[in-house]
Amino acid sequence: MRWHADGPDLPDDLLKEHADGRLVFFVGAGVSRRARLPDFGKLVRKLYRDFGAKKPRGIVSSDQALFHLESAYGAREVRRHLQAKLALGENADTATHLALIRLARTQFDGEVRLVTTNVDQAFVRVAETEDVACDFAPKLPIPRRGEWRSIVHLHGGVGDHDPSGQSLVFTSADFGRAYLSDAWASRLITEMFRNFAVVFVGYSVNDPIMRYFIEGLTAERAQGLTSFAFCENKDCERFKFLGITPLPYETANEHVALHATIRNWAAVHWDGKLGKKLLLQRHFGAAPPVAGAPEIEQVVWALSDADAAEYASRLEPCPPIEWIEHLHRDVFTRENAGNSPEERANRGLRAWALRHLDKLQLVDHLLHLDEPPSASFLAGVRSKLANPDQPLSMQIRKFWELYSSAAAWPGRVLRYGDTSALVGRALEEWNAAVKIDLLFALTPRASFRPSWRFLNNRDVADITVELNVGGREGCDLLDSAFGSSLGHAQILRDVAEEVTQLLRAAMELGQFIDGKPPVAHDLDPFSFVSPDLYFHDQRALLERLALKSWRAVASTAPERAALIAEGWRQLDFPVFARLSTASQTPAVNEEQLPPVGETPADEPHQAEPRPGFLALRERAQRSDWATPKEWDRVVSDSKGDGALAGEVLRMLVVAPDTHLRDDRIAESITWILRRTPNVVVPDDTFWPLVERLLRFEIAKSDEPEPDIHGDAIDSLIYRVVETMISRLLGLVPQPAERDLQRFAPILSASRFEGRCRLVRELDRLYSCGPAWVEERLVPLLGWNTPSQAAHLWRHYRPTPQTPLDLWKKIKPDFLACFKHSEVLGREARVVIEKQARSLFLILFLQQEWIKCDETRAALSGGGSECRDAFSLELRNCMEGLGTAADRSWESTFGPMIRNCWPKEVKYQGPVSSLQLAIAVTYCSSTFEDAVKTVLSVLVPTPHSAGVLERLLKAGHSTKHPAASLSLLDAIVENDGFPVESIKRDLIENLRAIRSVSLDLANDHRFKRLSEYAGGIDNP
Questions:
Q1: How far is the C-alpha of 65 from the C-alpha of 43, rounded, in Å?
Q2: Residue 248: DSSP 8-state
Q3: What is the strand order of the sheet 134-136 is part of?
Q4: Which of 35, 422, 653, 691: disulfide with 92, CB 3.0–4.6 Å?
Q5: How far is 763 from 910, CA to CA, in rounded Å?
Q6: How far apart (Å, rounded) are the C-alpha atoms in residues 874 and 869?
Q7: Rounded CA gap, 465 and 291, in Å?
Q8: pTM, whole model, 2 decimals?
Q9: Using alpha carbons only, what angle is made at residue 269 by residues 265 and 275, rounded to the nearest 5 degrees?
Q10: 806 and 762 in contact (C-beta within 8 Å)?
Q11: Cα–Cα distances in Å, from 556 out to 376, 495, 500, 549, 561?
């Protein structure tokens, strides 16, 4: 997983060791370069210049050179100069040191375990603010869990504890003492490696400390101990040779990728569960970035945490379904027993997916899985379908009813080998057990395949009725094995009625699949096709077996055969009419029925053959380009074949305009261009195709000002622009500003949907070309054209990661969103809620970006939806903070409510009051002050159950009875009768308050609440 685009890819092993509290950070001089401190080699060179000395010939290593300098000028004088060189500036950049300390603090015991060979005071300065202890050589702790809780300065440190610097380890003599004679350093390292995994930060393979370290630990590495090292690409092989897993990164710009990785990682780790939740709010709540972006890996990592995944499943608005392409494939297929963290995380992701039953992408993803879905996911689908409020069209509802039923997943799916063994058992020894297995093999089921026209004319899936016989080969085997009704008369007689019932079930299942909705097909955005439903070769097998079975019965039991034939006559399907007619012909020949796989004459086959690409290419070479319909099929078929897709697209570069103007072909082309690697679709194919598609789309219409209710995402031009963005932002290195000129036709055209897609990527485009974005895109967000601005702000929202320069330019228009609900129309609630979440995150994470009066004006002007969404985000943050809730309330959330929340009564509502009341219940030592802060902005709510439950769970009614009573009085309504759950929890809270304070039991608020609950002493 990466925390920066050019940063190292952190392996799962390292992340697991860190999550389990077994990872120790071993920090070297490279980290202190940001603080403008020299590394070991530069330090020695500066000292030689100070003394006007020259390094003797033959001395290579810095530790030996320093030993020689001390021998010549005296250790005291040299170390005095040395300590002066390591003096830390007042404004030194120690952000990475702080990040490392926070990463080294475990989630389990909160203790810091970090080792550094640096002797400067960077860690000491930061440790004072973080309340972390420091140990200095030679007095070192025992590196074991429960006994070590400090930053260890392995080579000593400059400062008052060692004014003369005599304990510093710098010269070869010092290293000999530290690692050989006195051996305090080697003892600590050896013991540390026995108990912890280690990751090196700020070292190179040529570092003398690394050399001593590795040479002394050969035996320890042989015991399978884990170690990692952040390093340059050129050092990877040498680290591997030393038995250390390399974590390479780009070293440009003073190792910015490494420092950004450590700081970003620490920012999430420091906030614990909240950090992962905030990460998901920032990234999972929006469309995924282009493939390969580090944000994708971060989201997948955060979703592996059970609590974070459960939280993500409840995010509003629901995170987009496009993230499904980046999830582990076993989320929907693997189901672990019990309540393991992995299963809880998968449950959360399945719950999120179930909110997208109306999305094509979910269907397509599931149909491409190699394994059947888990029982819990199918149960979840059935539960959603049972909810009458689930907004699904008739066709997609029918799909999910089939997909979640036993008709799709009847149990074990047989393979050809299973069918072959079954035939052998039947012919060798026919009995009741074999009969059950044969009927199970002949049971019809719905078989799903991804539609080759998916997202073209919006077919979701090809669905056929198949028998559970192990494919076409198994069908042929059964047909040949029981080809003679006389040879296996007993078997056929025993299954006669059951085969008829199975054939009827197959026809009814097919009728259910193929049934037409009461609305026109093209008005339903979801459909599925069954191209050979009634005429599948396996259905024909059942028909032939039914007739063979009837003949076997007729030869020994005419009365029974007559009943079977009469049953056929009463069924409406044409297949039974044919069987009935055949049964009335005494000398019926089996050849009267169509052979397996052949279509009966009275039921014409609807499937058309798919023309091959080679044939069309040969025709095109003769300037005979066939029809767009024929090419549409070839383009659609090439979606799953990268090589074929590349060939097809290279041909279409010079195709006639009529082909690229065809919407079906154009949509398929954009689909392929987004998902096919650059190596398959090179620039000389990609850009000519895209530019032609764009030109045709722009020329289609000059539409007026957009309707705010319209949805730009469904338009072809939106997807064409999305394809261009994916290509440009996926370049390595990132595109230059001149590349952004490719979007100029979109901005000059009247097709509004393309501008929506550009604005959606505003932040990332700004990082490529600030001047271009400022000139061409930022003005589009202005409210001088209200309908345009409303639609664009619906697609874009700033985040705390928005570049500060860009934020300054869009901030006025962003704040204006909250005053334009009349322009937003019926979409106002969705837009305002989304922007309110942005407002909260910015205020929480970048407080200096926005003033209190600006926030207060936004909360006032955005309506109740804005305040409700804002308060919900605050409550979610408090829920995830855990033990840090008190600190955050004091430093951030309390001042936020006091200074930014509008105090007028007209701005207080039941929903926001409920969320704020629940939020303060997550406070502990600050609970009483938090209640005082929110009381002035609370109004009663009929849905106070969450507050009551939280007060009991946190024990506030006993620990803080007066504050709890004040909160209850403010939030619990006074009218009507409470529902049973509210009544029960209110009584429990009042009893708890009374148990610790009889005075409060006489308070008029207590009496009012008691009366509302019907009396607290009643059973």
A1: 11
A2: E
A3: 134-136, 150-153, 113-116, 23-27, 197-201, 227-232, 245-249
A4: 35
A5: 36
A6: 9
A7: 37
A8: 0.50
A9: 100
A10: yes
A11: 49, 15, 18, 12, 9
